[in-house]
Structure formats: C-alpha cells, structure tokens
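sry for the spam today, last one i promise. struct tokens for design, 188 residues
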C-alpha cells in the first residue's frame, strides 16, 4: 500500500488528538529513517536504538508543536540529531544522565488503552513458543515485554522499575510489541 503525504498528515492530526493508532503508525512508518540516521552517526546499534526511542518519545510528547509547513521526517531527524548532540556533550562532560523535562500531564497523552492487534496476537500464542520468540528480541525489549505481560506492571511501574522516563518506556514497549509480532508472523 502506497502512503502519500495526505495519509501522513491525517495520522499526525490524529496523533495530536491523542489517538494511539496514529502514534503506532508514525513510529512504524518513520522508525527506519530515524534509526538509520542515528546508526550512521553513532555507529552503535544499542545507542542508535536508545536515541531513536527517545526521539519518538520526545516527538510524541511535543506533537502539538509540529508545524505542518515542514516535513515530519525532517522534524524527527532534527529532534534526533539534537538528542544525540546533547548525549555526546553530556558524555564528554562526564555528567551523563537519563532525564526528561516532560511534565506528567504531557506524558499521559500517549494513551494506554485497549489491547492493540499486537497485544492480541501475543496473548493468543502458545506460552512456550512465545517465550522462545521473546528470547529472539534484544534484552531491553525482553525486559519491557516481561514486565508488562508477565509481571502485569503498568507503564508507571515499568518506568520506576527500569529507572527510565515514562515516555521512553511507552515508546520502547510499542517498538518491542511490533518487533515481537513481526517475529511471530515470520516464524509461522
């Protein structure tokens, strides 16, 4: 299916209204652009993934400030570049920390509602087989899947447990579910 600029604009508007499926669409559609950009810059898969997750978390948190006169992918890449520059500066200054300046009200705009198709697919799988598939994920994705689905923690509890900002946890879980669903579909 061909995605045109009007489709993207519609999804951005839905995201501005807090629609979870729009956030998922934007993450899925633009993930490779942001991740690829960061992988070229930092030359480390884990760092590129972390920066990409933080990029989407920040972008989703600030989605209402996006100006449609600009290209969404350019806006995301700019956010991503700034995050990477900030991380490098902090690392070089030996004051590296994972903090966010996001208010609790803004973070809650990414909804935690009904199960997504990935959630339904995950729950329908045979537990033993599912655990084998989860082991194919990178450890930080395994962690959020385990905390959410097996320990049944809320987003807030996961954020506390991992000592990560809430919006980063939401994006990481969204990404983990997508990757797990792709593994399940691929293996079956």
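last one done:
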């Amino acid at each position: 299916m061909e995605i045109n600029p009007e489709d993207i604009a519609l999804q951005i508007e839905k995201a501005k209204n807090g629609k979870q499926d729009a956030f998922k669409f934007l993450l899925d559609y633009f993930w490779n652009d942001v991740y690829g950009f960061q992988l070229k810059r930092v030359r480390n898969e884990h760092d590129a993934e972390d920066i990409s997750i933080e990029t989407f978390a920040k972008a989703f948190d600030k989605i209402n400030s996006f100006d449609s006169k600009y290209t969404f992918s350019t806006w995301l890449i700019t956010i991503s570049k700034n995050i990477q520059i900030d991380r490098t500066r902090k690392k070089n200054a030996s004051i590296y920390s994972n903090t966010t300046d996001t208010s609790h009200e803004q973070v809650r705009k990414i909804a935690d509602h009904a199960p997504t198709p990935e959630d339904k697919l995950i729950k329908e799988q045979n537990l033993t087989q599912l655990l084998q598939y989860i082991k194919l994920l990178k450890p930080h994705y395994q962690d959020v899947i385990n905390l959410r689905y097996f320990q049944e923690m809320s987003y807030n509890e996961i954020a506390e447990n991992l000592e990560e900002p809430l919006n980063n946890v939401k994006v990481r879980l969204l990404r983990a579910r997508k990757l797990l669903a792709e593994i399940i579909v691929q293996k079956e």
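DSSP finds ten helices and no strands in the chain. ok im logging off now
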